[in-house]
Design a protein that fits this description.
By secondary structure, the chain is α/β, with parallel strands linked by helices. It has helices at 14-25, 83-103, 122-138, 162-168, 172-180, 186-198, 209-222; strands at residues 5-9, 29-34, 47-50, 68-71, 108-112, 141-145, 149-151, 183-185, 204-207. The chain has a single domain (5-150, 184-222), classed as NAD(P)-binding Rossmann-like Domain (Rossmann fold), CATH 3.40.50. Helices cover 42% and strands 17% of the residues.
Length: 223
C-alpha cells in the first residue's frame, strides 16, 4: 500500500475524528485544517494547519504536498430548518476547497455528498449536488461518496426504522430506493473513506450506499 499525504477539512467533525486516527495508524501523513482553538480535538501525529474552511485563501498555500484532499466540512445534524446553512457552509466550503485543491495540483479529491434523489431534505441534496458538479468541473480525479444516514455515537435513533427498510427491500418497486437510502455504520463510512484514499479513482467515481458498504468490505478483506 502506497503511503498517501492527505489534506483534510472538517477533521474535528463526526467523520473526521473517526477517519484521521485510522489514516495515521495505516502509515499515511495527515495534514488537517482546523479553526484556532480546536487543535486539541485532533490526535497527535496529525499536522495541524490553522485556517478558515470558508476562505480558500487562508489555507491554499498549506495544501501541498498533499496528493489527496478529503472534504468533510458540513453542517452538523442537518435538518430542514438549516436550509440556508447548506449553501453558506456546505456548498461554500466545498467550492473553496475544490478550487484550492485544483490550484495546488491535488491528484485525487474525496467528497462526501448525500444519497440522491431523496424524498426529503431537498435543500441539503441540492447543495451537495452542486458540490458534486464543482468536483466534476475541476478536472481532478475524484471519489464522491453518497451516504444517507450514518449511525454512530449519539446517532442511533434511525435503527428504529430497520423493520421499515426490511419491508421495503422485499417490495420490488421499492427495493432500489430502500438500498440507495439505506443506513450504514460509522465503521462502514470510515472504511469506505479509507478505501477511497488508498485506491484513488481514475476520473470521477461515485459510491452510493451499497457501494460504500462494499468498499468497506473490500478494505476489510485487504487489511
Amino acid at each position: 500500500m502506497a503511503k498517501k499525504t492527505v489534506f483534510i477539512t472538517g477533521g474535528t467533525g463526526f467523520m473526521g475524528r473517526s477517519l484521521i486516527p485510522e489514516l495515521l495508524r495505516r502509515g499515511h501523513e495527515v495534514r488537517a485544517l482546523v479553526r484556532r482553538g480546536s487543535e486539541s480535538k485532533l490526535p497527535a501525529g496529525c499536522q495541524l494547519l490553522a485556517g478558515d474552511p470558508l476562505d480558500g485563501a487562508s489555507f491554499a498555500r498549506e495544501i501541498g504536498p498533499a496528493d489527496t484532499f478529503v472534504q468533510l466540512v458540513g453542517v452538523a445534524h442537518p435538518s430542514p430548518a438549516r436550509a440556508k446553512e447548506f449553501r453558506s457552509v456546505d456548498l461554500k466550503s466545498a467550492s473553496e476547497s475544490i478550487r484550492a485543491a485544483a490550484e495546488a495540483g491535488v491528484k485525487h479529491f474525496v467528497y462526501v455528498s448525500v444519497a440522491q434523489p431523496a424524498p426529503i431534505m431537498k435543500a441539503y441534496v441540492e447543495a451537495r449536488a452542486a458540490g458534486e458538479a464543482l468536483v466534476r468541473a475541476s478536472g481532478m480525479d475524484a471519489t464522491i461518496l453518497r451516504p444517507w444516514y450514518v449511525l454512530g455515537p449519539g446517532r442511533q435513533w434511525p435503527r428504529l426504522l430497520a423493520p421499515f427498510y426490511w419491508l421495503m427491500e422485499r417490495i420490488p418497486s421499492k427495493r432500489e430506493t430502500a438500498r440507495r437510502l439505506g443506513l450504514m455504520t460509522d465503521a462502514e463510512m470510515r472504511g469506505a473513506l479509507l478505501y477511497a484514499v488508498e485506491s484513488p479513482a481514475e476520473g470521477v467515481r461515485v459510491l452510493a450506499v451499497p457501494d460504500i458498504k462494499e468498499a468497506a468490505r473490500k478494505l476489510g478483506r485487504a487489511s
